[in-house]
């Protein structure tokens, strides 16, 4: 264990920081800042003051005065924080400087607080002298605040002596108008019922301009951020879960528990244990003894159970525990007690000697066996297994764990069931007659454990358990061995797929081979359905179609509704037609409802939400996915089916532009540490939101995570390539963006090919357009664009979403040929608008506006840009908004509705709006080439416009044309339109880049 490491950043306290800033802005006033030990009060104050000190160059930078109370303050060190404040002030401005702020420039009245001010005028300690001292302190602070705002921080007020409390109360109650903010910090866990500070806080709470802030414990997300700040990298989700559970969100405990290598110690660090036990060690010995008994029962324990274990009657137990409740070590919780913090219980429990430890757990187990009603019935066997295990009674620990596994399985508490089955396997070899005791052999336990591991989403462990069971089955003989092997192979194949492990398809095929064909049974029907369901994702649709159809035929032949439902659901996925209606799912739904159970219905919601999103019915998709997530949560499948459905909820939210909602869904799903195959889509969606909002670093980090699994599952592979291509285009790395298309060109015919291929091909075409005649616009020595066109020609278009994707692709393809096609971009924008996809709609509108500028339609360009700007602002899509602003600026377009400047004067000379724009640039001294670049037209077109202008104005030269325009006031002087190349070709189609033609 290395030394405690500290976080370089303050986490989870932005709201409190904002409240402190608001309090200072509204000074005079006071803030009562409370929180348990380790909550981060001092760190918050340090951060607040550091930010204020960072503003010291400002004309009125606040002055900070900090003083702390001492733990022995009530025993003879009155006014300790104010003595510290005065000493700091003297060091800063000197005794004379302090004197200047006092009446008659006489600091002697403060000598009672600091000897440096001389001797008090009188030795009399009267009430009058005390009142005078208080007035002097207030005067000093207020006059100091007249120069610049003052922040007075009194730390650890729970240790404040009576005099300090009185002075603080006086100052807060008598604040005048000077900008003086008083911050009082205290530990909430130190405030027992008779603590003198409790009364003061209650009184000050009622004073005007006093606000109270109590620091809550950190959320899991905050703990993850804190751990990342400490380690300099993202910690594994399981470490975050354990860290959050043990620390319960206390920042100090997080820092103390987390080792610098990212691991968690099994035992509490000495420094943390000492801190936790301070309050316990102050209690009477008999109270400490009962707390040691209570520590064996968990964070919360019923009164009756503790009475049975301690041997005390109700009245005596209540009397003995009263000091612990008063000291806030225990809190009353219903009919029992809870430790204020789980780590207090852990520290007390760890302090037991080995013999005490085992005897205590034996007493708990015996008490529960004598009276099972001491604990809830659904927890009895789990509790018994726990206590017999730590009492080192292996036989009864194993028997109890087996019984507990049965109870938790019935309650669909898969994680707890797996824990109990794992304990049975752990103890198996230490109990000679284990099989007779529980009525099951070791292989049966392994089979149950493997099944439970899959249900709990513990795929790594599940694969090991299934492999172990398969190994032990090799020595077994019997009619059902092949069926049992097939079940294990099918299960291992599913779990291997979830971890993106190679060999999963071989397991599924072998499972099918082992099962008889004549007569076929329900096991074969299910194995075929599984082969179709998982095989289609990576190995094309032909084998999957055949397997699903055979599965359906068998299910109907043997009248197995569960197998029929699975087969119908799989057939739905093999070849999805997004142009069909949702009624195509109705036969599968009827079968799923006939089959009963949760799995088919949950899978149906997955398929329906996926179908609706692919069909462009985003709002319906989100509704169905949300309903499915609620069902998964109810069934205890939040980490598996629930996180998969989170993809299907986040995706339509992203499509609809509800990005903040989507980010919340994605964060919550990722917090559950989903399997790799689910995590990929989650991080891709998060990366695309970050990219659209201009956070390229975050997008890059998400891309790195997504690339952990680069396999042939269309939804994962093509989505990752989509993010990669978008990011590289945003970074100006056009060659790398183009290379992103290579796997899409290579992998043809995968399920859902068109849905995920179209966006990547569109981005590849955009890269080709940017590269133009660059030699980099080649793939394997061949021009890239013909390869892209050939791939696009083979794609289907099913449903309105794919139609919008294809229209966008065609508009980008025109750019590769040198044409910025306004009509094509308008059609794409309209298609996206029809299915309520604001971001691609805005992008298409921007391209259409650019084409309109090139065609001289300034009014049309401005109208499109205004619409796009509204969409970008709502989405907070900063890069797109900046591009829109740039086009407004360079195109000299009016942001509000209305016509172009100078239209009336231009009409008098027969000038068109485009000619007026050209004349403005001529008057600025621009050449034909510069005019062409500024107005997105060719140099030849600019030359023609200039010739027409000279004729209409009846002048011989460009200089005369400029002079005439200024003299007649055709337009007012304006700043240059700016330089910059076009985003893609001219509308006359001139030029054909090398990437668009094959080489000889």
- Unreliable spans: 898-905, 972-994, 996-1000
Number of helices: 48
Strand order of the largest sheet: 2-3-4-1-5
The residue-averaged pLDDT reads 85
Query: What is the share of helical residues?
Result: 55-70%
Report on the structure:
There is one protein chain. The protein is mostly helical and 1000 residues long. Strands 2-3-4-1-5 form a 5-stranded parallel sheet, with helices on both faces. Helix 11 (285-295) packs across helix 13 (314-326) and helix 22 (481-498) runs parallel beside helix 24 (522-539). It is flat. The protein starts with 13 loop residues before the first helix and ends in a 32-residue tail after the last helix. Mean pLDDT is 85; it is low at 898-905, 972-994 and 996-1000.
List keywords for this structure.
63% helix; 48 helices; disordered C terminus; five-stranded parallel sheet; 1000 residues; three-stranded antiparallel sheet; mainly alpha
What secondary-structure arrangement, pairings included, does this model have?
Blueprint: H1 14-25, E1 29-35, H2 41-53, E2 63-68, H3 80-100, H4 127-147, E3 150-155, H5 162-173, E4 180-187, H6 196-205, E5 210-214, H7 220-231, H8 237-247, H9 251-257, H10 270-281, H11 285-295, E6 300-302, H12 303-310, H13 314-326, E7 330-333, E8 336-339, H14 342-350, H15 354-370, H16 380-390, H17 394-410, H18 414-427, H19 434-438, H20 442-456, H21 459-473, H22 481-498, H23 504-514, H24 522-539, H25 542-558, H26 561-574, H27 586-595, H28 599-614, H29 618-634, H30 638-655, H31 659-671, H32 676-692, H33 696-706, H34 714-730, H35 734-739, H36 742-746, H37 753-771, E9 778-779, E10 782-783, H38 784-793, H39 799-816, H40 822-834, H41 838-854, H42 858-875, H43 878-890, H44 903-908, H45 913-923, H46 928-935, H47 939-953, H48 958-968
Helix pairs in contact: 5-6, 7-8, 8-9, 11-13, 11-14, 15-16, 16-17, 17-18, 18-20, 20-21, 20-22, 21-22, 22-23, 22-24, 23-24, 24-25, 24-26, 25-26, 26-27, 26-28, 28-29, 28-30, 29-30, 30-31, 30-32, 31-32, 32-33, 32-34, 33-34, 34-37, 37-38, 37-39, 39-40, 40-41, 41-42, 41-43, 42-43, 45-47, 45-48, 46-47
């Amino acid at each position: 264990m290395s030394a405690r490491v500290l976080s370089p950043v303050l986490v989870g306290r932005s709201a409190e920081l904002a409240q402190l800033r608001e309090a200072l802005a509204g000074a005079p006033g006071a803030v009562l800042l409370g929180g348990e030990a380790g909550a981060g009060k001092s760190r918050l104050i340090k951060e607040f003051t550091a930010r204020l000190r960072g503003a010291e160059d400002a004309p009125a930078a606040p002055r900070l005065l900090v003083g702390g109370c001492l733990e022995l303050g009530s025993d003879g060190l009155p006014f300790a924080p104010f003595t510290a404040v005065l000493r700091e002030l003297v060091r800063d401005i000197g005794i004379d400087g302090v004197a200047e702020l006092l009446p008659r420039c006489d600091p002697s009245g403060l000598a009672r607080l600091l000897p440096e001010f001389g001797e008090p005028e009188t030795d009399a300690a009267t009430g009058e002298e005390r009142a005078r001292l208080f007035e002097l302190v207030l005067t000093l602070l207020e006059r100091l605040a007249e120069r610049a705002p003052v922040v007075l921080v009194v730390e650890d007020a729970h240790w404040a002596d009576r005099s300090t409390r009185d002075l603080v109360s006086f100052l807060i109650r008598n604040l005048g108008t000077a900008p003086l903010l008083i911050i009082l910090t205290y530990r909430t866990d130190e405030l027992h019922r008779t603590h003198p500070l409790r009364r003061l806080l209650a009184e000050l709470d009622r004073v005007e301009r006093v606000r109270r802030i109590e620091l809550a414990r950190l959320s899991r997300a905050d703990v993850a951020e804190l751990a990342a700040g400490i380690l300099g990298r993202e910690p594994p989700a399981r470490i975050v879960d354990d860290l959050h559970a043990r620390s319960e969100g206390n920042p100090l405990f997080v820092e103390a528990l987390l080792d610098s290598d990212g691991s968690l110690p099994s035992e509490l660090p000495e420094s943390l244990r000492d801190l936790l036990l301070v309050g316990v060690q102050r209690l009477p010995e008999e109270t400490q003894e009962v707390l040691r008994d209570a520590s064996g029962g968990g964070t919360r324990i019923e009164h009756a159970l503790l009475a049975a274990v301690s041997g005390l009657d109700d009245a005596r137990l209540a009397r003995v525990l009263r000091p612990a409740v008063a000291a806030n070590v225990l809190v009353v919780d219903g009919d029992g007690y809870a430790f204020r913090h789980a780590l207090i219980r852990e520290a007390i429990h760890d302090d037991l000697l080995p013999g005490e430890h085992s005897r205590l757990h034996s007493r708990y187990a015996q008490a529960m066996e004598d009276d099972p009603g001491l604990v809830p019935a659904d927890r009895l066997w789990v509790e018994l297994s726990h206590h017999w295990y730590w009492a080192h009674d292996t036989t009864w620990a194993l028997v109890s764990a087996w019984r507990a596994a049965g109870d938790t399985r019935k309650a669909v508490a898969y994680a707890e069931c797996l824990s109990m089955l794992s304990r049975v396997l752990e103890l198996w070899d230490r109990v000679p007659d284990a099989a007779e005791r529980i009525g099951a052999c070791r292989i049966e336990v392994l089979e149950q454990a493997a099944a439970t591991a899959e249900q709990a989403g513990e795929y790594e462990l599940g694969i090991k358990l299934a492999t172990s069971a398969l190994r032990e089955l090799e020595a077994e003989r019997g009619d059902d061995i092949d069926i049992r092997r097939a079940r294990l192979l099918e299960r291992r194949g599913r779990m291997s797929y979830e971890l993106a492990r190679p060999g999963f398809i071989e397991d599924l095929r072998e499972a099918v081979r082992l099962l008889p064909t004549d007569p076929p049974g329900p096991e074969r029907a299910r194995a075929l359905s599984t082969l179709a369901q998982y095989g289609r994702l990576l190995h094309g649709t032909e084998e999957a179609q055949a397997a699903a159809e055979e599965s359906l035929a068998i299910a109907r032949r043997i009248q197995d509704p569960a197998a029929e439902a699975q087969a119908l659901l799989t057939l739905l996925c093999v070849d999805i037609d997004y142009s069909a209606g949702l009624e195509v799912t109705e036969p599968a739904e009827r079968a799923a409802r006939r089959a009963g159970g949760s799995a088919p219905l949950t899978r149906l919601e997955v398929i329906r939400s996926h179908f609706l999103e692919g069909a462009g019915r985003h709002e319906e998709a989100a509704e169905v996915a949300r309903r499915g997530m609620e069902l998964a949560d109810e069934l205890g499948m939040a980490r598996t089916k629930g996180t998969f459905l989170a993809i299907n909820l986040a995706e339509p939210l992203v499509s609809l532009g509800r990005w903040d909602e989507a980010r919340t869904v994605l964060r919550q799903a990722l917090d559950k540490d989903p399997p790799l195959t689910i995590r990929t889509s989650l991080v891709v969606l998060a990366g695309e939101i970050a990219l659209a909002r201009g956070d390229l670093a975050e997008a890059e980090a998400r891309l790195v995570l997504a690339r952990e699994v680069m396999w042939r599952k269309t939804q994962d592979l093509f989505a990752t390539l989509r993010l990669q291509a978008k990011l590289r285009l945003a970074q100006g790395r056009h060659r790398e963006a183009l290379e992103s298309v290579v796997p899409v060109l290579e992998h043809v015919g995968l399920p859902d090919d068109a849905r995920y291929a179209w966006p990547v091909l569109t981005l590849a075409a955009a890269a080709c357009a940017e590269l133009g005649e660059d030699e980099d616009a080649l793939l394997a020595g061949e021009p890239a664009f013909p390869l892209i066109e050939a791939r696009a020609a083979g794609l289907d278009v099913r449903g309105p979403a794919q139609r919008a994707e294809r229209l966008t692709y065609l508009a980008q393809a025109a750019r590769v040929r040198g044409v910025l096609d306004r009509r094509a971009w308008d059609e794409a924008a309209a298609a996206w608008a029809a299915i309520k996809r604001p971001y691609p709609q805005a992008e298409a509108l921007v391209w259409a506006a650019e084409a309109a500028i090139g065609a001289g339609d300034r009014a049309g360009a401005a109208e499109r840009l205004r619409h796009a700007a509204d969409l970008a602002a709502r989405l907070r899509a900063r890069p797109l908004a900046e591009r829109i602003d740039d086009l407004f600026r360079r195109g000299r377009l009016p942001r509000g509705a209305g016509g172009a400047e100078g239209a009336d004067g231009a009409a008098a000379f027969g000038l068109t709006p485009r000619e007026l724009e050209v004349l403005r640039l001529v008057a600025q001294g621009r050449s034909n080439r510069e005019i062409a670049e500024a107005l997105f037209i060719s140099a030849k077109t600019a030359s023609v416009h200039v010739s027409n202008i000279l004729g209409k104005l009846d002048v011989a030269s460009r200089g005369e044309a400029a002079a005439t325009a200024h003299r007649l006031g055709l337009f007012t002087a304006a700043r240059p339109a700016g330089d910059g190349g076009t985003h893609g070709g001219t509308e006359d189609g001139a030029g054909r880049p090398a990437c668009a033609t094959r080489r000889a």
